[in-house]
Amino acid sequence: MSAPPSPQLPPFDPADPLGIDDLLSDEDRAVRTTVRRWAGDRVLPHIAEWYERGELPGIRDLARELGSLGALGMALTGYGCAGASHVQYGLACLELEAADSGIRSLVSVQGSLAMYAIWRFGSEEQKQRWLPDMASGEIIGCFGLTEPDHGSDPGNMRTHAKRDGTDWVLTGRKMWITNGSVAGAAVVWAQTDDGIRGFLVPAGTPGFSAPEITHKWSLRASVTSELVLDEVRLPADAVLPGAKGLGGPLRCLGHARYGIVWGSMGAARASFEAALDYSRTREQFGRPIGGFQLTQAKLADMAVELHKGLLLAHHLGRRFDAGRLRPEQISFGKLNNVREAIEICRTARTILGANGISLEYPVMRHATNLESVLTYEGTVEMHQLVLGKALTGLDAFR
């Protein structure tokens, strides 16, 4: 009896060595293609110049364009939001950060922090007032949690809100706030007699200002600001009624961290692709450097970590869409993927040699951006302790 014919295997794809695309639907691929094309047309031709100048010109136009793509508040439903799956939102973050972390940060802060806070914890009146214009990009939002002296320990924030009749009066400072100086509305978290509460602070409110932070060597193509609240008086309906305690802002951070799990792999992919292309064309000792064993070992290790990270992102996305994603699992993804993305960028830089530090290539820009991504939305140490507590049942935070 003759053996059955062997199945015809698909060819090996260096861009997708594990066949991860098989996990995607046609709609998923369409979302990815749309965002990749937009980033290629609107960001990549200019990003090196923006980064070198330390600015993000035309941010309001970019926000409106991202709104027209449905990328703002992408996984939220109603109020003009796209209602996309969390996997599709992750794919969008991947493509945006493959262009630049600053662009993905703009989208993450808008949708996963500011809009999500209103969508999840706001009143119906607040949702109707703010979310449609934020989904379209007409209004940019920011999220004020981190303070100059309290980053990883937001429970001890000093910003406070006091009752004065039916009004609230807010005083304090927030630091490292993406979108702050261009935001039409800030979601600000403050201590009250009833615990930590969230407040909607419209731009232009007396006592509220958002000076821009300069002299950054990371996330240079991103608007980063301080928020100053000097006895800012707000009406009673400025408070987010559904959030009491630290659980409110932490839940928002979980959504933002999820986007980082995907986005960091976009920065890693762009750096890996730059190194792979360079290795095929750069010649030393009479042949392309990609033909040397040490270079191939680096490329193989980079590819393994990149596509392991993508598999992890897909797995977490499917769990998110099934309503089964735990905060500890988001910490797992954020810790692994950002840490590995930085290592991929650093290894890619060694393959490019001295050219690796030039803005003619994306590698050093991504590497420096990822140093910020490693810190914000929870440092390496914080996510290690989250997982440590989950694994042992013992709290080592204090």
UniProtKB/TrEMBL annotation:
Its cofactor is FAD. Belongs to the acyl-CoA dehydrogenase family. Coiled coil: none annotated. Residues 142-232 form the Acyl-CoA oxidase/dehydrogenase middle domain. Gene3D superfamilies: Acyl-CoA dehydrogenase/oxidase, N-terminal domain, Butyryl-CoA Dehydrogenase, subunit A, domain 2, Butyryl-CoA Dehydrogenase, subunit A, domain 3. It comes from Streptomyces rimosus subsp. rimosus (strain ATCC 10970 / DSM 40260 / JCM 4667 / NRRL 2234). Residues 245-391 form the Acyl-CoA dehydrogenase/oxidase C-terminal domain. Signal peptide: none annotated. GO terms for biological process: fatty acid beta-oxidation using acyl-CoA dehydrogenase; fatty-acyl-CoA biosynthetic process. GO terms for molecular function: fatty-acyl-CoA binding; flavin adenine dinucleotide binding; glutaryl-CoA dehydrogenase activity. Keywords: FAD, Flavoprotein, Oxidoreductase, Transit peptide. It comes from the Bacteria. This is Acyl-CoA dehydrogenase. Residues 25-138 form the Acyl-CoA dehydrogenase/oxidase N-terminal domain. SUPFAM superfamilies: Acyl-CoA dehydrogenase C-terminal domain-like, Acyl-CoA dehydrogenase NM domain-like.
